[in-house]
Amino acid sequence: MIYDKLPIVFLSTIASEKKDATNSLIATYLLQHLDEMQDIGIREMAVACNVSLSSISRFCKEIGLRDFNELKELLHTTSLYYEEAGADKDPENRVTDYGLRVKESVDLVTKTIDIPAVERLIKDLASYERIAAFGLLKAAGAAISLQADMLMQGKQVFTNVSYAEQIRYLEEAGRNDLILIFSYTGTYFDSADIRRLGRRLMIPKIWLIAGTKEKIPSFVNDVVRFQSGHDQISHPYQLQTAAGIIAQLYAAKMKMTTR
Question: CB of 6 within 8 A of CB of 78?
């Protein structure tokens, strides 16, 4: 479980299941009542969510937790935070401030992205048949964007916004799988779910696309890095820009090879 990203995993659950699915109902209720849930028992939670005790237990396991007690521990340390682009109360000025922050974040990617690494990734994208791209929530948006761009170029890329399904894919991946992980801070792999996979993660070829200088795990084969301020506002735009750059340079490379 990615401990400091519990709300993101809840939102991922909601986004990846039908509105009236049990897990979606539980995740929705928890997000709407985070403070109230910190001191509630499993029976009370089941009643509040209008589901069975077994549904609560199953929900915990399917989002990567050991049991309900671990969920309770995480709820005690979970809080919501939203970053504002500026403190100006004038709407026009606030919009301008936000636009500047977004533009600066995009410019930073185009100026600092590791192009030689992107070129190595493009070679892998061209040679592998089984390709998947994953990320959590906003990072999943970048994976979906890349999937769409690659499809327009005749290359299929699999993705899934469900955290549990991403873990399952990693668990079952073989030597013919190329897996791209979009992770703004590179913390995608900081979870018990992934650590328990151990040496299995050394079987597929894994790429990380991230705005971090931190050392990557040994099972990650290569990384496309770009500079980042690690703020909420830059997050989606920088990853989307990186995904777009990969698709653009892939298109250019394919044109050169078909001449």
Answer: yes
Q: Which residues, listed in sequence order, are joined to residue 209 by a DSSP beta bridge?
A: 182, 224
**Tell me: the pLDDT tens digits for 125-147?**
999 999 999 998 889 999 999 99
The SS3 call for residue 232 is coil
Q: Is residue 133 classed as helix, strand or coil in its secondary structure?
A: strand
Residue bearing the bigger pLDDT, 166 or 74? 166
Instruction: Say if residue 89's pLDDT is above 90.
Output: no
| CA dist., res. 132 & res. 109, Å (int) | 23
- CB-CB contact of 205 with 177 (8 Å): yes
Strand, helix or coil for residue 40: coil
Q: How far apart are CA 141 and CA 239, in angstroms?
A: 8
Angle at alpha carbon of residue 164, lines to 141 and 161, rounded to 5°: 15
For the beta sheet containing 130-134, the strands, ordered from the edge strand earlier in sequence to the opposite edge, are 130-134, 177-182, 205-210, 222-225
Residue 244 burial class via C-beta count within 10 angstroms: exposed 0-12, middle 13-18, buried 19 and up? middle
The model's pTM: 0.81
- The secondary element (H helix, E strand) that includes residue 205 is strand 205-210
How do 222-225 and 130-134 pair as beta strands?
A: unpaired
Residues 6 or more apart whose CB falls under 8 angstroms from that of 74 comprise 1, 3, 6, 65
Predicted confidence at residue 169, as pLDDT, reads: 94
